[in-house]
Amino acid sequence: MLLSNFSPQRYLCREALRQTLRPRSRLVAVTAMASTVVYVKGDPVANKLGDCPFCHRVLLTYERKKVPYTMEFIDFANKPAWLQEASGGKVPVIKEDGKPYMPDSDVIVVHLENEYPEPSMKSSVPPEIGAKLFPAFRGVLMGPPEEQAEKQALLVSELKAINDYLEAHQAEGPLFGGQQINATDAAVSPKLYHTIVALKHFKGWELPEEFVAIRRYMQAIKQLPEWQKTDYEEATLIKGWEKHMTHH
């Protein structure tokens, strides 16, 4: 366009027409995604996230995929009536616009991978890696004293399998997903977090020194923005388990 023939009024009119005729599907899609609500353990009064590792898994997935969402905190001491009907009183639960409540972190993360395939979080890590970590951790934390040796041996066995896998694939990066989190990271890292923090606080148990890859793993994942946006911090984690220890 020659500057001598340039008309600001004509240009602005043409731009307005272009904006009007532009397809609106993208805008509608973003608006629909933004209406997703993720119900998680937390304190609605203090507006603070709680320490649920299964909620953490789902939030890490949302953050990695950059899918807009809002959080609603569920006070476990005062659960809403709808939650019992939707999930048996468990979290996480998601509610997408126009769709029924969807409970269960296993179901939710598969749904997110199918609906938002990029970036992919698909994992080639064998599903047995980390699968028994959480019950093994709970066995040490809450098991009777006479079973401590047996429970700790089981936990160490689970941790060794995790450490061995990470060690064998360290050339790809410190995480299960290499440099970025994948589905295995989202599932296992919150459980490792609970295991390391809670057992040290309540049992004086330290992660064995030989598990260097796990130490490197936790250090790396805590540096990622996905983790930093979803971390409920160690004090909250300890406070959450104190209630279980009190009633144990």
Automatic annotation (TrEMBL):
Reactions it catalyzes: L-dehydroascorbate + 2 glutathione = glutathione disulfide + L-ascorbate
Domain of life: Eukaryota
UniProt KW keywords: Transferase
UniProt key word Coiled coil: no
GO molecular function: glutathione dehydrogenase (ascorbate) activity; transferase activity
Family in the record: Belongs to the GST superfamily. DHAR family.
Designated name of the protein: GST N-terminal domain-containing protein
